[in-house]
Design a protein that fits this description.
Elements lengths: L1 H10 L16 E5 L2 E5 L14 E4 L2 E4 L1 E6 L5 E7 L6 E6 L3 E3 L2 E4 L4 E10 L2 E10 L5 E2 L2 E6 L5 H5 L8 E7 L3 E7 L5 E9 L4 E2 L3 E4 L2 E2 L4 E10 L9 H14 L6 E4 L2 H18 L20 H11 L4 H13 L19 E2 L3 H5 L6 E2 L5 H16 L2 H22 L42 E2 H20 L3 H22 E2 L4 E2 L2 E2 L12 H8 L4 H11 L32 H13 L3 H17 L31 H4 L1 H10 L1 E4 L4 E5 L9 E9 L2 E10 L2 E9 L4 E5 L2
Parallel strand pairs: 29-33
Antiparallel strand pairs: 1-2, 2-3, 3-4, 5-13, 6-7, 7-10, 8-9, 10-11, 11-20, 12-19, 13-18, 14-15, 15-16, 16-20, 17-18, 21-30, 22-23, 24-27, 25-26, 28-29, 30-31, 31-32
Length: about 725
């Protein structure tokens, strides 16, 4: 009983609670830098459903309620959307029947409220344009109620605190009010709400406008909410709107464009590109994509690296931004409370009261076993894509430190495998990408004991050693390059011997602390194809298993096979489907020549994109088997948008096309390009290679995909290799 109780307690660590069912509406999201907003289709913020709505800044919720009323009732909803570039929310609303002494004073549909909002530099800008389509003048009873709980993001997620700071008395003025909170960390956080023009009344909890509108007349009201410290003093709507749009255009990661003969595919690509830009735009960490809204809107090492890898062939500037930031924050000493060791790459960083006080360990946290080898893989991939040797030369001390971490700390027992065990008293128990506490287990369902060596991590280390060898050779370190290649080959041989499960036809998920195999069919083995550590004969068996009924749901590859003891299709990691996981698997399938299987994954996720809100793939969705006539089953607390989910379409496309870009040789290679059945033609425009623009057109003819060069502004070789 004690062991069972311990397991239940462990499973609750940093759990995202669900106090009541999510409303039927999917939330709307805006983000700019450290500021993001989650609200409903009306544009309102309410403490309903999962309780995740709010205006958040630096890990704190600065506004926990903002609800619009016309009279005593919420308006009737007509429509709302987020613009294609994720910049602007707009909603069309109208009034219900407004009564006066039991008589209809303003009939339903008389008033039209056009509501719009955007975020910029620490400020939420809102505009309400109210129109009277009635035949007589009316007094418009417009009211906004508001609250600010200044909850830490971990409180919003469900973490209970023994005590918290105190709310300060509101300070209302003629056209504004200040809501304040003094945290236990000594910081005073303030929300400044200002109305333009001045309302009829403003208090500590609501604002009231009561204009008289004549027939066909319209009036406009503005509300700004500034989260202190604002980056700049709020300016008027028009000035902020124009400046923010211009900044968004200037910050575009490139002028490339992908278009196909399939409009649904185009919608998916367009939203994905906009989501990635939103996750980067305005961040103080230049070029670094935050992981996801609402729970992970901050720097994550693993997420940033994988997103950069997904998008590298189109946008290498993101990879450079990720590498620079992670190198600057690489651990330099042992700190058990943050799971830091010299050379280790950051897992996540958090701001907010609970992180500042150490109530959560994530202020600057290094509990990730895979971010360090992935960092090396990204560095080499960036070099191959750009040929930027001087950047690699400048980065080399950090590359060397990462290699030293792998050998001295990652492989703590000297068995050639990199494993993990938590050192922090409050850090993550599982430190691979599947970081739920119950995600690594044996065939009988018992949890694996630490230290744990994950199969995909050994693949990452194998690829990292080879990546480092490539960079060392380029820098004239030939002896070190040879040694690294030998280390990689030695690891590959030992990996095959220790991880292969002949009865399952796949690699064990992990070795536990006693070097026992976790003989479970999982998606982890697909990452072994991505890194190339799998032998060709074993890769074929793994590929067949990944696309078999046990693992492939019809929408994508599940994290855990449906016959496993802990399989749960509505869990976080034990049977769900993650788009980024599928993209890495598809890339691995392509690497071993299984482009038809990679295409099945792409087609499944394309179908998902057609059926989800805004054509936006969420962080994950449930792994229930695909049923005719039904859409995918959404996971209730998934982030949407999520950077590496958005990036998945670009890696999936890269896998199917077999495209690789070599900046050193100034060439673009298509290796046996393949297009899925629902995409007959594809255009890639504005592909940049060292300042040279290349436009390409691909078309399927019978069983062959032909590549045509439409424009080549530089001396770039475009090579097609057919089987």
């Amino acid at each position: 009983m004690e062991c069972q109780l311990d397991e239940v307690n462990v499973a609750q660590q940093f759990y995202i609670t669900t106090r009541s069912p999510r409303s039927e509406d999917r939330p709307r999201v805006l983000k700019y830098g450290n500021l993001f907003a989650v609200f409903d289709r009306y544009g309102d913020i309410e403490p309903l459903g999962l309780g995740e709505e709010g205006l958040f800044y630096d890990g704190t919720r600065f506004l926990s309620q903002l609800v619009l009323y016309i009279g005593k009732s919420r308006p009737l909803f007509l429509s709302s959307t987020i613009s294609r570039d994720n910049f602007l929310f707009t909603a069309d609303l109208t009034n219900v029947d407004i009564l006066d002494d039991d008589q209809v004073a303003i009939p339903r549909g008389t008033l039209h409220v056009a509501r719009s909002k955007f975020l910029w530099k620490g400020v939420c800008y809102e505009k309400f344009r109210v129109s009277n389509y009635g035949l007589r003048a009316v007094t418009v009873p417009l009211r906004l109620t508001f609250k600010a709980d200044f909850a830490d993001i971990f409180e919003v997620r469900g973490t209970r605190r023994e005590r918290r700071g105190r709310g300060l008395d509101p300070s209302p003025g003629a056209d504004s009010v200040v809501l304040s909170y003094e945290g236990l960390d000594g910081e005073i956080r303030r929300s400044y709400l200002r109305c333009m023009p001045a309302p009829q009344r403003i208090s500590s909890s609501d604002v009231v406008f009561s204009p008289v509108l004549y027939p066909k007349e319209e009036l406009t009201f503005h509300l700004t909410v500034c989260c202190e410290p604002c980056e700049d003093s709020p300016v008027d709507w028009e000035t902020a709107f124009a400046a923010a749009k211009e900044e968004l255009k200037a910050d575009s990661p490139g002028n490339w464009r992908i278009q196909t003969s399939n409009e649904q595919f185009n919608d998916w690509v367009g939203r994905s590109a906009a989501d990635i830009q939103m996750m980067i735009h305005g961040n103080p960490e230049v070029g670094y994509p935050y992981a996801g809204v609402p729970w992970f809107s901050t720097v994550f090492g693993r997420d940033g690296i994988i997103t950069a890898l997904e998008c590298l062939w189109l946008s290498p500037s993101m990879a450079k931004g990720v590498l620079l930031f992670l190198a600057a924050n690489q651990a330099t000493e042992v700190d058990e409370e943050s799971d830091a060791e010299p050379g280790k790459i950051l897992h996540e960083m958090r701001k907010g009261e609970m992180a500042a006080l150490g109530e959560v360990p994530f202020g600057l946290y290094y509990g990730s076993v895979d971010a360090t080898p992935l960092f090396l893989m990204l560095a080499a991939a960036y070099y191959e894509r750009t040929g930027d040797l001087e950047f690699i030369r400048a980065l080399w001390p950090h590359i060397q430190a990462a290699l030293d971490w792998i050998d001295n700390y990652g492989d703590s027992d000297g068995d050639s495998f990199v494993e993990y065990a938590r050192h922090s008293s409050g850090g993550l128990v599982q430190q691979g990408w599947k970081d739920s506490n119950d995600s690594v287990f044996h065939a009988n369902g018992s949890l694996a004991e630490a230290p744990i060596a994950l199969c995909e991590v050994q693949g990452y280390v194998f690829a990292a050693k080879r990546a480092a060898a490539l960079m060392a050779a380029a820098l004239g370190r030939s002896e070190q390059a040879s040694a690294l290649e030998l280390q990689a080959l030695s690891l590959q041989a030992k990996f095959e011997e220790s991880f292969w499960c002949g009865d399952l036809g796949t690699y064990a998920t992990a070795l536990d602390g006693r070097k026992r195999q976790c003989q479970v069919r999982t998606s982890n083995a697909g990452h072994c194809l991505y890194t190339g550590i799998a032998s060709p004969e074993k890769a074929r068996l793994v590929a067949q298993g990944l696309l078999g009924q046990d693992l492939f749901s019809g929408w994508g590859v599940r994290t855990v096979g449906s016959k496993e003891v802990r399989y749960n299709p509505i869990s976080y990691h034990n049977g769900s489907v993650w788009p980024h996981d599928n993209a890495l698997i598809a890339s691995g399938l392509s690497r071993y020549g299984f482009k038809d299987l990679a295409s099945r994954i792409l087609s499944g996720l394309l179908d998902v994109s057609v059926l989800v809100d805004l054509h936006r793939l969420p962080e994950l969705f449930c792994g229930l088997h695909r049923r005719a006539g039904d859409g995918p089953t959404l996971y209730p607390v998934a982030c949407s948008p999520q950077a590496w989910a958005a990036g998945s379409v670009f890696m999936l496309l890269e896998a199917c096309l077999g495209i690789s870009i070599d900046g050193r040789r100034r060439q673009i290679v298509f290796d046996s390009p393949y297009l899925p059945d629902n995409v007959n033609e594809l255009w890639i425009k504005g592909l940049d290679l060292l300042g040279s623009r290349v436009d390409l057109f691909l078309e399927r003819r019978n069983d062959t995909v032909r590549v045509h060069v439409l424009e080549n502004q530089g001396n770039v070789a475009v090579i097609t290799q057919q089987p």
